[in-house]
Specification:
Structural class: alpha+beta
Shape: globular
Strand content: 25-35%
Number of strands: 55
Distance between the termini: 85 Å
Length: 1147
């Protein structure tokens, strides 16, 4: 028997044998006593991820979503389980022979372990499943997820019993104490939570670890936790409120814990296994021998310990070594092979080709030709690297495989049977000797079938092929070849199932209208004037969902499945148009969409029509990053086109004047640097100061963090300063009326299209906008193609004056950290009249999402930070308001990497960003002047017009204000008067009270429904908004109050409840000890602070002595039936309590 040829990913054992799963798609059986391999299975067509052993049957799962069962004695495959679409991350079998599996596709499935049939599909999580635990006595299943929640499922019905929310980051580990009814969860947020499984309440939260808690186990009355901080926490469950005892166990991260009898085993990044006595908490021995972090430990019996490390080494340690360390090296059995990075059920961040082990090359055969390729590639990437085109719609290298479009199907040779079988190339790794066929008749047939099944309409096919060609694939020619045949196949299906398809169309149209929340004949949403969503073109690839949640952290989109066998587009999670939603218009979704369903709001045709009329002076301004990326429109590397060639392109497109937005970038630095100095020297000024150049970041502040508005710099962005200078300075200079100038900017950002529509940037008298139109680089690319402009036509051209000169500091605006670096250069000069000592300030450079530093700023220690990317922004702002959040100046950009990664840039992948940022630094270094205050044209502008930075004229034309975003609400303007009429003649003595807090009207509707339900028993009910109640102190006179509140976005109170809660917080303890109440909340588990508003109200009422008559209702919008899932049973309970205890009081 041969040993594994690739990394070992999972090990399990019985009393005699050890079973190991590997990335080489095989399973091997080893004798525990001898250490030799005794059996070998050719198991899967993709890397095997995990193993489970039950009653002589071995279950294995792979990275493509397939599960198989094996008879370990007869070396025979029993069954295959199909249903998951992505990597399986958790698997288990209970005593009733029921197999459970969780996947990266966010689903949990229940299988019959004997025949492989799917019994239940549990849908409710929104991210990767991390662990599964079943309770056969209660017939329930617990599943934890990266979405920060644990769900308890009824196994028989497949419905949710309870949702445990409270963690602020990934849940890594989970254990269930069935005897005590306690669920323990450990998270990346550094905490451990104890949950009462009967009530769903959080009993206690344990603190003390400095980094993520990755494993835990309990023994008797103690809970043991392992963390990345290298410490083991020992918690006495009898004295749970006391701080745990911590042991400095490992020099690096702890990866795993395992208890056996009265010993605790821990494995860590320091490549050791340590054995601890649970009697005195002392280390008994240390096993050394691994050459990489230890990620799994199993103990088959009292004589043997087996461990597996990241370099795929399996070690067998006899228990006698706990007493005899000297014999350690002699007794271990090493099975040395390639290493792997994906740890079983521990590291849940999937990155394509993430195997470690260097750049090893393997030999593969593609269509009969032999090639050497990097072993880290999958089949799709390997084939493209050597020149074989494979189409793919749903795959993107930055987001990992999805496998839904099935356009990237290939055939690979089975080692055992020597027959070719189909495989999804984006989700299958390569190995030594792999044989691949990419163009067989059966592949062509499957490709046509996949295209037909996608139900792509004929009118959208050309656009889809065009988008695929411009995106990150090269297979559009093959798709076009079979498009006609696929159409015929689709037409045949429609003829055979005409009535069924008619019903399907009606269902889709109805569902679309319901989900969007509007009755409309169109499925195109361009309401925010930045991006455009055409739901009819969606192919359900889920790219937009992934990028919006995983990269930007906004969770605006969600996938929706229909009852029919059909694909459905991704929708706004709130069922609203984009302009009413949490969308910040960053446009990252448009960068990743492969079908043209999400694009920038295209305005090129209107502009081309205007250019032909020549009725207005049309002026163009090009942003710093766009001159770097315009080269990519011609198939060149970033920066290959000179700035002069970019100017010539705009002149060839018909623009009358071409100016440089880098000029106003320098102007921004002069204003922002001066404002920073004012804030640093004024003790009453607000610090830290945030930059305001990025409109996506401004949208985020106004929508999600309105408390930060006073911290924003008042400076306009370079685009809006450019428009203001053109319309108010240049127009007078050339004696042209501002309304006869049409100002156009070329920007890397879709949010710029929305920014120019702000009323602050319009002339209050004429209502003309400062900037009339903003184009993305992709829109310029379409104009270039329509005009037939080629590289051979491009010559060097200069910018027009007077807005044509700029410095190196302005060029830095293209990259994350550039605004910070440029501002520090000029602010230092403005304060000291000396050059900044570190012209190239390296701590703020690079593509890292969060960068922090401090520097000596003329005797003051200035603490700064630079953040880019939506998810990084949320992470950075988490400790806002605490002492740990102590900065003076912060630069924030909404897109990863800053403007070079903007939503309007040419479509590409993450490999292009380092090239773009390096091109930016090269150009900055080549500038003759590198600081904004050295720009001679800037000096002239101040001398001729502005007079001085941050002066009266500058503040009027170059600065602005911000305000919280006013979300649309269903609360009518006469709500107060309506309820006043209803409540007339009622008082606390003869009626109960319902107080509600509602942002969009949903919580108000729930309050009305509660009123209707209680009216059947007692009609004397008062209802009003929380803020309309006179003062919370008057609650002491109420007999019974029902509180209803939604949670606005991520933990905020509705506007009509904020004042009420602030007043409630100021009441004295026990001041409401005569009040009886109940509460109902509306929230969404898609946000970390699930039902935060009602929880805070409930907690505060209890502190004030109020008595709760029933458990608070926590409804979840993401449930199958929405809020009604929780509301209906809650109302029944309230109805019963009311009839029993309160009916007579208000008759």
């Amino acid at each position: 028997m041969k040993e594994h040829t690739k990394s070992v990913k999972s090990i399990v054992s019985d009393e005699k044998y050890l079973y190991s799963a590997s990335a080489d798609k095989t399973i091997r059986v080893w004798s525990i006593n001898s250490g030799y391999c005794v059996k070998h299975f050719e198991a899967h067509q993709a890397p095997v991820e995990s193993l489970v052993l039950q009653n002589g049957v071995l279950f294995s799962c792979d990275s493509a979503g397939e599960i198989k069962s094996w008879d370990v004695h007869k070396q025979r495959n029993i069954n295959s389980f199909f249903g998951h679409t992505q990597r399986i991350t958790a698997m288990g079998v209970d005593k009733n022979d029921r197999l459970f599996s969780g996947s990266s596709d966010c689903s949990v499935k229940l299988w019959n372990a004997h025949d492989g049939t799917l019994k239940q599909n549990f849908s409710g999580h929104t991210d990767i499943i991390t662990k599964l635990i079943s309770n056969t006595r209660l017939n329930t299943l617990f599943s934890s997820s990266v979405d920060q929640s644990v769900i308890e499922w009824d196994i028989e019905t497949g419905t949710k019993k309870q949702v445990f929310n409270g963690h602020a980051d990934w849940i890594f580990c989970m254990e269930h104490d069935e005897d005590k009814g306690i669920l323990y969860t450990g998270s990346k947020d550094k905490t451990i939570k104890l949950w009462d499984t009967k009530t769903g309440n959080n009993i206690h939260t344990l603190f003390g670890h400095e980094y993520a808690v990755v494993d835990l186990c309990f023994y008797k009355n103690f809970l043991y936790t392992g963390s990345w901080d290298g410490r083991i926490g020992i918690n006495n469950l009898r004295k749970i409120k006391k701080m745990p005892v911590f042991i400095d166990a490992h020099e690096g991260k702890i990866r795993c814990l395992q208890r056996y009898d009265n010993l605790l085993y821990s494995g860590g990044n320091d490549q050791t296994i340590r054995v601890w006595s649970l009697q005195n908490n002392k280390c008994k021995t240390v096993f050394k021998g691994h050459n990489a972090p230890v990620h799994e430990i199993i103990i088959p019996n009292q004589n043997i310990t087996i461990s597996c490390a990241k370099e795929a080494t399996i070690c067998r340690w006899p228990s006698s070594m706990i007493l005899k360390q000297k014999s350690q090296q002699k007794m271990k059995k090493l099975l040395k092979k390639e290493s792997h990075l994906i740890e079983m059920n521990r590291n849940h961040s999937y990155e394509l080709g993430s195997k470690a082990g260097g750049n090893k090359e393997v030999n593969i055969i593609i269509n009969g030709q032999q090639f050497k390729v990097n072993s880290k590639l999958n089949i799709l990437e390997a084939c493209r690297q050597v020149g074989f085109e494979i189409a793919a719609l749903c795959y993107h290298p930055s987001l990992g495989p999805v496998g839904t479009c099935r356009c990237c199907v290939v055939e690979i040779k089975n080692k055992k049977t020597s027959n070719f079988q189909s495989a999804c190339s984006c989700a299958t790794d390569i190995w030594e000797g792999l044989e691949i066929s990419t163009d067989s008749p059966s592949i062509r047939k499957q490709l046509m079938s996949s295209l037909a099944d996608l139900r792509l309409k004929q009118k959208n096919r050309k656009l889809i092929m065009k988008m695929v060609g411009n995106h990150d694939t090269r297979g559009n020619s093959r798709l076009n070849k079979y498009i006609g045949k696929a159409e015929k196949r689709l037409k045949f299906k429609q003829q055979m199932q005409k009535q069924q398809n008619e019903d399907f169309d009606e269902e889709v149209e109805s569902l679309l209208e319901d989900l969007i929340g509007k009755v409309s004949n169109k499925f195109v949403d361009n309401s925010n004037h930045a991006i455009q969503v055409d739901h009819t073109k969606c192919i359900d690839c889920t790219r937009c969902v992934k990028v919006c949640s995983n990269i930007q952290g906004m969770n605006v989109y969600s996938s929706v499945a229909t009852l029919t066998d059909s694909l459905m587009p991704a929708f706004n999670t709130k069922g609203l148009f984009l302009n009413e939603s949490m969308c910040i218009a960053c446009g990252q979704c448009s960068l990743y969409c492969p079908s043209g369903a999400i694009t920038e709001y295209d305005q090129t045709k209107n502009l081309e029509a205007l250019l032909k009329t020549r009725k207005k002076l049309v002026i163009a301004g090009i942003a710093p990053s766009c001159r770097l990326t315009m080269a990519e429109l011609f198939g060149l590397q970033p920066g290959d086109l000179t700035t002069g060639q970019c100017v010539h392109i705009l002149r060839l497109l018909g623009f009358h004047k071409v100016f440089d937005v880098q000029f106003t970038a320098d102007l921004t630095i002069m204003e922002e640097g001066t404002e920073l100095l004012h804030r640093l020297t004024d003790p009453k000024a607000t610090l830290p100061m945030f930059t305001s150049c990025c409109p996506g970041w401004i949208n985020m502040v106004e929508k999600q963090y309105p408390k930060l508005i006073p911290h924003l710099s008042s400076c306009r962005s370079p685009q809006q300063m450019f428009g203001s200078i053109i319309k108010n300075y240049y127009a007078r200079k050339v004696r042209v009326l501002p309304q006869n100038i049409f100002c156009v900017t070329v920007m890397p950002c879709t949010a710029k299209k929305q920014e120019l529509l702000r009323p602050q940037f319009q002339n209050p008298k004429t209502k003309f906008k400062d900037v009339d139109l903003s184009l993305t680089v992709r829109e310029i690319g379409r104009m270039i193609k329509r005009r037939g402009i080629g590289l051979s036509q491009l010559e060097e051209r200069d910018f027009d004056n007077p807005l044509g000169s700029s410095t190196g500091s302005a060029q830095l605006f293209a990259s994350s950290g550039g605004v910070m670096e440029a501002a520090l250069r000029s602010a230092y000069w403005l304060k000291t009249s000396e050059a900044f000592p570190k012209l190239e300030f390296k701590p703020v450079r690079g593509l890292e999402g969060i960068k922090e530093s401090s520097l000596d700023f003329d005797g003051r220690q200035l603490k700064i930070a630079v953040v880019s990317g939506g998810k990084n922004i949320h992470k950075f702002l988490e400790p806002w308001g605490t002492t740990s959040f102590n900065y003076d100046f912060i630069e924030i950009m909404a897109c990863p990497g800053g403007c070079i990664g903007g939503g309007g840039q040419p479509r590409s992948n993450k490999k292009i960003l380092p090239l773009r940022i390096q091109s930016c630094y090269n150009r900055e270094k080549a500038q003759s002047t590198r600081s904004s205050h050295e720009n001679p044209q800037i000096k002239k502008l101040y001398a001729d017009w502005l007079k001085k930075p941050h002066g009266k004229i500058a503040i009027k034309f170059l600065h602005t204000t911000y305000s919280p975003f006013q979300f649309q609400t269903d609360l009518s303007s006469n709500t107060k008067s309506k309820y006043n009429e209803r409540n007339r003649g009622l008082n606390p003595k003869n009626s109960l009270l319902i107080l509600f807090g509602s942002q969009t009207g949903t919580a108000q509707n729930v309050a009305e429904k509660i009123t209707q339900a209680i009216n059947k028993i007692g009609k004397k009910i008062r209802i009003m908004e929380m803020n309309e109640y006179e003062h919370p102190i008057n609650l002491k006179d109420e007999k019974l109050v029902i509180f209803v509140s939604s949670t606005f976005w991520d933990g905020s109170f509705p506007e009509n409840a904020i004042n009420f809660y602030n007043q409630l917080k100021n009441l004295q303890p026990m001041s409401l000890n005569k009040l009886q109440y109940c509460a109902f909340g509306l929230g969404s588990t898609s946000y970390t602070k699930f039902n935060n508003a009602i929880k805070l109200i409930d907690s505060k009422l209890k502190e004030l002595g109020a008595k709760e008559i029933m458990k608070v209702g926590l409804s979840n919008r993401e449930d199958k039936n929405g809020y009604a899932t929780t509301l209906n049973p809650w109302l029944k309970t309230l109805h019963r309590i009311f009839r029993k205890n309160f009916r007579r009081q208000w008759k």
